[in-house]
Amino acid sequence: MSEYLLEARNLTKHFLLDNDTVSRLAGKTRTLKAVDGIDFKVKRGETLGLVGESGCGKSTTARLITRLVEPTAGEVLFKGENLLTLSHKEMQKTRKSIQLVFQDPYSSLNPRKTIMQILSRPLEVHNLAHNWVEKRKRVLELLNLVGLGEEHVDRYPHEFSGGQRQRIAIARALAVDPELIIGDEPVSALDVSIQAQVLNLFRELQEKLSLTYIFIAHDLSVIRHISDRVAVMYVGKIVETGDVTDIFNAPKHPYTKALLDAVPDADPLSKPPVLTLKGEVATPIDPPPGCRLCNRCPIATPQCSVDMPELMEVEKGHYVACHNL
Ligand code: ADP
Prior knowledge:
Bound molecules: adenosine-5'-diphosphate
Radius of gyration: 21 Å
Distance between the termini: 36 Å
Structural class: alpha/beta
Order of helices and strands: EHEEHEEHEHHHEHEHEEHHEE
Helix content: 25-40%
């Protein structure tokens, strides 16, 4: 059995823009390279943190893994099997093992259904409980798992706080006994104090249920708290990946350094940022060849605008895509 639960190879999603007949005839279609050939691996039982600014392709990556969005190219190997070759029916089955938890606990729960109904639904869809007694027992078990009392079972989503709703969304994901949970900014909409509680819950559940996580966030402190390994994305590409301590203590890519420098520092005597980036984030629409950062990078050389650097191992398990290291 491979130590890797999930592996993405050359995972790619290009959206065609202006794809109407008139634009096509005039040769004016454009390509938005949301995810542009990324590779990563996730070991069983670990958390891969996917971090980067808004629009860099994190959510699209999550949707590609679960095929909520169909990839343009690449492979997603889950327990060695390429998910992208599965039929609709086979994928339906595999989806049970890969669950998504979204950012917004307010819109992800149907306001007209009770918690009992919401948590029963996945059990019914996947035929995991055969009668009401079995369902009720499992739903109460799930509520306990996420730290909510059984007295909540017949209430409606509007009767809960944001943090409690996210616990319900987590319980729903757990209902089908998944192996991999992909959290797409699952604590971003919560107050900071509640964020910490929900992050701790994720960690407890990981330990208790041997779960593997891909955790998406734009907030570095969240990524640092939860991740074993980190992949840093910039305009559809992974620019650096490695153990969480290496990424945070010894970042190598100019973009990762700038991201870390941008974190507000409470210590007034701390050194000024070592590196800041000028200019705007590059567009993913018909990007020019070369490194996506080259127009903003303080160490760019002419080669950087010619070809895209590949991820190279600079230290054991630490990969960086930069021509100038
Ligand atoms: P992130 O999660 O990092 O904020 P996203 O994956 O949501 O980024 O988006 C990456 C890029 O893909 C953005 O430029 C976004 O506008 C674009 N995008 C996402 N979905 C679509 C779509 N369905 N059609 C066209 N462009 C899209």
